[in-house]
Amino acid sequence: MDKTFSWSGIRKEAKRVRWPKRKDAMNATGEVVVFTVFFALFFVLCDLLVVNLLRVLGIGA
To answer: For residues 28 and 20, is the Cβ–Cβ distance under 8 A?
Structure first.
């Protein structure tokens, strides 16, 4: 039986993990929120532009 994983190896590796500091995690979270809001607004504006363009062309409802 191949022992690729073992509990002692998992514990040893978990101790090596460098967990982010609270400040780093908050900064990354803030960046994700800002980019998400930006792209949401971008796609809403693109959708409105296309809908209005189609209405002007007489294709939209």
So the answer is: yes
